[in-house]
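Standup notes
- DV: blocked on the single-chain target, sequence here:
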Amino acid sequence: MPRQFDGSRVRAVRRGKDLHQKELAEMVGVSAPSVARWESGQDFPKGEKLPAIAAALGQPLDVLFPHDGSPDLQLLRCDAGLSVAQAAAIIGTSRVPVSNAESGRRRLNDAYVQPLAQAYGVTEDELLAAQDCSFGLRPRTSRDQQASAPRTVGEKINYLLEYGYAGQEAPSDEEIARLVNEHAGMAAVTADDIAALRRGATTNASDVVRAGLAHALQVDAALLQDDAQVDPKAREFMEGLRFLSSIDRGQIIGLAARGNSSGLSVEMMAHINELVGELKHKLPEAHGGE
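- DV (later): unblocked, structure below
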């Protein structure tokens, strides 16, 4: 949610500092008439100007311009004092990727996360949590809960079981073991082996077992390799699973801010349909048999 701006309060603080409108305008980098319009309520400053206004008036940003809820991408950018064009220049693109992410239309490319987090003065986890807020998802409270980039085969099994079975019951360890062995044509694992992988008690799994797990969980076998970093397409697929699962669980928020308090907005529905289409196109093997 954007920060709250009260022109009369800005005027009162400015006068208390014995500053003229022209002086404040020069410190912020705007014209004196702009400050006059802000203070009279005829206009509002751009969000990226608020940090400079607060600094010029010697006030904490959160005190002078409070905001409700967790920060989204737009708030992080504005609090860094950056325009959309400036943020886009940092990642070497047009304004489109930044605008799309802030408006909840398309998530940031993985390559943009680190430079934007650095520019915004936040961690990568904080930027990803803010991106979730921009997409109307409840913020997650810890990195353990996020699990946005599971690495070991056990972590990936847990992720897929948690988010990949919206509206239906996920298979048990016994069922997964049965399907793996059926695919392998031999007794490759037991239910206890699957449980050990999921607990992290063991991280070793043969190629035969991984292929069987891919069959059991209906995903591409490449998704279950122990990569230091999940392949971008695979990560997008996993993010899509979590996104769709969150919808099924009623974890979508922020609809009122989109002008809709009774259900999903047209934009959100369009995004969902677009996401499903992209996932099916990019990872067809993950949907084999559907």
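- Follow-up: The CA atoms of residues 183 and 264 lie 40 Å apart.
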